Each structure stands twice: as C-alpha cells, then as structure tokens.
Amino acid sequence: MHQDTIGTVMITQEEINAKAAEIGQQIEKDFAGEEVVLIGILRGAVLWMGDIMKNVNLDMVIDFMAVSSYGASTKSSGVVKINKDLDTNISGKNVIIVEDIVDSGTTLNYLKAYLQNHDAKCVKICTLLDKPEGRRVDIDVDYIGFTVDDRFIVGYGLDFDQKYRNLPYITYLEQE
Ligand SMILES: O=P(O)(O)OC[C@H]1O[C@H](OP(=O)(O)OP(=O)(O)O)[C@H](O)[C@@H]1O
Ligand SMILES: Nc1nc2[nH]cnc2c(=O)[nH]1
Ligand SMILES: [Mg+2]
C-alpha cells in the first residue's frame, strides 16, 4: 500500500520571515534607485513571493508565471510546461524570479533563458530553498534562503501531489 506522511519541522515560519527581511535588504542595496519586476513562479512560490515583495522597498511591478514539471511525482519530468505566461513587458527591466526551490535546475534554467529572450536588462533568481545535491543543470542562483539536503520537501508553498502547500513551515515527505 502506498502511504505518505510528513517529517518534523525543518525550517520555521519565524526563520523564513527573518531570512526574507535579510534578502530584501540585499535586493534593495543591489538595485538602489532602480525599478524591479518580481516574477513569482506559481504555484510553489506563492508564500515566499509575499514575503519578499513586502521586504523590498523599491519601485516595483509584480507578475506571475505558472510552470510545472513535477506533476504528481517526486521526480522532475524534465519537461517544463508553461501554464500561465507573463502579462508584463519586461524589455529593459531588472527582473527577479522568485521561486520556492532550485532542485535539478531544469525549471530555472528554462525560465532564465525564456526571460532573457524577452530582452530583460538582467534576470536574477531569488529562491527560498536550494537543494544542490539534486542539480542536473548548472545555474547561478543570486539570493538563497536556505540550503536543504536531498529529501523531497513540502510545506510553505511546496506540494506533493498538490497537498501540503498550506503548511506554515518547511518539512519533508517520508516515503515508503
Ligand atoms: O529545479 P527543478 O528540478 O526544476 O525543480 C524546481 C521546481 O519544481 C517545483 O515546481 P512544480 O513543477 O512541482 O510546480 P508547482 O510549483 O506548481 O508545485 C518548484 O516549485 C520549482 O518550480
Ligand atoms: N514539493 C517539492 N517540489 C519540488 N520540486 C523540486 N524539488 C522539490 C521538492 O523537494 N519538493
Ligand atoms: Mg510541485
């Protein structure tokens, strides 16, 4: 029988809030006096996007893209599907992609190239979590909240088969 349960708390909401404030300050410094376009990647980045945007006091436009490559699995299909495209013209703009996790790197590698092809001035990446052991494609990540080990993470936006996104902390899936 297939069953899934979740583990203990790995990262608390308080730790995430403190980290968002720290990264927000760094972004303010890096883009002082400039406008930024934050692009949140649905659905996983939904909570982290809110945390980052309220901690960055700069001229800002936000937009969202929805992409998926995991479906109901814990392994990437390797194929990135755009379910919702940009609604903003990012030509000449400072773009910051806000993601929940960089694992194989497939999603961000694809998105970074996609946004560069839309003539952004620069494309930076801000992720809540980085899982370096999962990497299959090299990718430069500019702002990292926390580094996690090679477990399937859930909570704080991250799902397994669309569940657990509402957990207000980061934990992992115990698979049998
Ligand atoms: O580095 P990668 O191996 O590409 O994995 C990272 C991506 O996988 C998850 O998205 P998913 O496809 O599960 O969609 P979701 O955000 O709707 O859960 C996550 O939100 C990242 O976008
Ligand atoms: N929920 C979840 N989605 C992912 N997408 C890529 N890696 C992960 C992970 O560890 N957890
Ligand atoms: Mg997912």
Automatic annotation (TrEMBL):
All copies of domain Phosphoribosyltransferase, residue ranges: 13-160
Catalytic reactions on record: GMP + diphosphate = guanine + 5-phospho-alpha-D-ribose 1-diphosphate; IMP + diphosphate = hypoxanthine + 5-phospho-alpha-D-ribose 1-diphosphate
Single GO BP term: GMP salvage
Record Pfam families: Pribosyltran
Catalytic activity, EC: 2.4.2.8
Alphabetical keyword list: Cytoplasm, Glycosyltransferase, Magnesium, Metal-binding, Nucleotide-binding, Purine salvage, Transferase
Subcellular location: Cytoplasm
GO MF: guanine phosphoribosyltransferase activity; hypoxanthine phosphoribosyltransferase activity; magnesium ion binding; nucleotide binding
Cofactor(s) the record lists: Mg(2+)
Spans traversing the lipid bilayer: none
One GO term describing the cellular component: cytosol
Listed pathway(s): Purine metabolism; GMP biosynthesis via salvage pathway; GMP from guanine: step 1/1; Purine metabolism; IMP biosynthesis via salvage pathway; IMP from hypoxanthine: step 1/1
Primary residence: cytoplasm
InterPro entries found in the cross-reference section: HGPRT, Hxn_phspho_trans, PRTase-like, PRTase_dom
Leader sequence residues: none
Function noted in UniProt: Purine salvage pathway enzyme that catalyzes the transfer of the ribosyl-5-phosphate group from 5-phospho-alpha-D-ribose 1-diphosphate (PRPP) to the N9 position of the 6-oxopurines hypoxanthine and guanine to form the corresponding ribonucleotides IMP (inosine 5'-monophosphate) and GMP (guanosine 5'-monophosphate), with the release of PPi.
Family (UniProt): Belongs to the purine/pyrimidine phosphoribosyltransferase family.
Name of the protein described by the UniProt record: Hypoxanthine phosphoribosyltransferase
Classification lineage: Bacteria, Bacillati, Bacillota, Clostridia, Peptostreptococcales
Gene: hpt
